[in-house]
Design brief:
about 525 residues, alpha/beta, Rossmann fold, 3 domains, six-stranded mixed beta sheet, 17 helices, about 25% strand, cell membrane, ABC_carbohydrate_import_ATPase
Length: about 525
């Protein structure tokens, strides 16, 4: 079956109202290879894959699966034809177990009762076959993001999918988890499955994909063999211009301490320390990168700084003022901006318009409020200006945030936070799900905040991003800072050792100097 055609798309078009999301797409997907789909945020990649998985129906054009024309009127139709999709934002029931999530909607029965033993055995066999070790009895809300990704993959394999679609699957994974996932993709292709991979991470695509189709504003602009192209060429095809992600660190005068953490401890709901005695200072005009494997206290630390979680002991000073356990609004008014880890859960109110989401923190302030009434014209004008400035792909500022692509949702949050000119910016995975053009823009915005004398705490699971942007690096492991140094004084290998919990004698710089 290898290299035979799995899916043939012919002149496939999808129109929403007057907006053409996909414009006469031609594309051939083969069994036995990884086929990458590349494009800017809002280029139409996810819409195209949603038609393949039966979520959307085409406006016109044809889909063939295994050489036969098909009509995909529902996700069930796609599943019946062996098509499975792992979405960018996981579709898991948090308080269900791994097993319950995998079999949901396809439960094995025996005498009318759930045959849990059969399901357990099948899941264990699949996880061993594909190197996707999971605990079937673990609750989803108690496992890491990387493990949740494995659960999503097992969901489609459990349903005998031989055409697998992955939408930004590495966006929230650590480097180790990314390497494991790419190996899984290759294993799937080696077993004659067709793998479609949507990603903005060009190095990852080069490592695993055989072919890449590039989409720009809903149209196919190129299909290339990966062996015959470079990442620079792919980036230019994607955005239509050369991309430069290098950042030039000009020397900044030493600024005042704008954010100071003094022996901060944060507890979880079981009263166990998730952040344990952390002290760290950030000065104006510097970017401090916080490196660490996901789940080592980064999220809890950010929530404490931004007022979303209580501080059990220690103090947090912002601009010299004690803001320990202050309210979220007080912290915002003190000049703290926050790009959260989960844009849909913590960053946006999805059923609300772009206008409302842009002004969640400022609606009560002039010029957006006038004697207790909203000044809607000022909010609209401001939203339209930010949409243009940050290149947010939307039909209108009246569009609901939940209707934007993931990358454009991220740009909406970044536009809102940076437009307030925060003196302290907490940026958690700020380029998650963004294309290289948008990454270039966001990096420049973060560097501009540094140049303006602001302090930036950058939490990212992209070690390259931390090394590229940061002046200093601090490393967190099991809720404690295990070391740090100026970025030019520490190697990738040393950072990796500290991320694993090893303390290195001369890498203890966690205070501004």
């Amino acid at each position: 079956m290898a290299n035979t055609t799995a899916i043939q798309l012919t002149q496939l078009t999808k129109i929403f109202g007057t907006f053409v999301a996909n414009d006469h797409i031609d594309m051939t997907i083969r069994y036995g290879e990884v086929h990458a789909l590349l494009g800017e945020n809002g280029a139409g990649k996810t819409t195209l894959m949603n038609m393949l998985s039966g979520i959307y129906q085409p406006t016109s054009g044809a889909i063939e699966v295994g050489g036969k024309p098909v009509k995909l009127n529902s996700a069930k139709d796609a599943t019946r034809l062996g098509i499975g999709m792992v979405h960018q934002h996981f579709m898991l029931v948090q308080n269900f177990t791994v097993l319950e999530n995998i079999i949901l909607g396809d439960e094995p029965l025996r005498h009318g009762q759930l045959n849990r033993k059969q399901a357990h055995e099948r899941i264990v066999a699949l996880s061993e076959q594909y190197g996707l070790q999971v605990d079937p009895d673990a609750r989803v809300d108690e496992i890491s993001v990387g493990m949740q990704q494995r659960v999503e993959i097992l969901k489609v394999l459990y349903r005998d999918a031989d055409i697998l679609i992955f939408d930004e699957p590495t966006a929230v994974l650590t480097p180790q988890e990314v390497a494991e996932l790419l190996a899984i993709f290759q294993r799937l292709a080696d077993e004659d499955k067709a793998v479609i991979l949507i990603s903005h991470k060009l190095q990852e695509l080069k490592a695993v994909a055989a072919v890449t189709t590039v989409i720009r504003r809903g149209k196919v602009v190129a299909t290339v063999e990966m062996a015959n192209t470079t990442t620079a060429e792919l980036a230019e095809l994607m955005v239509g211009r050369p991309i430069d992600l290098t950042q030039h660190h000009e020397t900044m005068p030493e600024g005042p301490v704008l954010l100071a953490l003094d022996h901060v401890t944060v507890l979880d709901h079981n009263k166990r320390p998730r952040v344990n005695d952390v002290s760290l200072e950030l000065r104006g005009g510097e970017i401090v990168g916080l490196a660490g494997i996901d789940g080592n206290g980064q999220s809890e630390l950010v929530r404490a700084i931004t007022g979303l979680s209580p501080v059990a002991s220690g103090q947090i000073h912002i601009n010299g003022n004690d803001m320990t356990n202050a309210s979220v609004r007080q912290i915002i008014h003190e000049g703290v901006g926050h790009i959260p880890e989960d844009r849909q859960k913590d960053g946006l109110i999805l059923p609300m318009t772009l206008i409302d989401n842009m002004h969640l923190q400022t609606y009560h302030l002039a010029p957006f409020a006038n004697h207790g009434y909203l000044n809607q014209k000022a909010m609209i004008d401001d939203s339209e200006k930010l949409v243009e400035q940050f290149d947010i792909r939307t039909t209108s500022v009246w569009q609901h945030a939940g209707e934007l692509s993931g990358g454009n949702q991220q740009k909406l949050i970044i536009a809102r936070e940076l437009s307030r000119n925060p003196g302290v910016l907490i940026a958690v995975n700020p380029t998650r799900g963004l294309d290289v053009g948008a990454i270039e823009f966001v990096h420049r915005q973060i560097m501009a905040a540094r140049s303006a004398g602001h302090a930036v705490l950058l939490i990212s699971y992209e070690l390259d991003e931390i090394r590229q942007l940061s002046d200093r690096i601090a490393v967190i492991h099991q809720g404690q800072l295990v070391g740090g140094a100026r970025v030019d004084e520490v190697t990738v290998q040393e950072i990796g050792l500290m991320m694993a919990g090893e303390r290195i004698a001369d890498k203890e710089v966690t205070h501004a100097n």
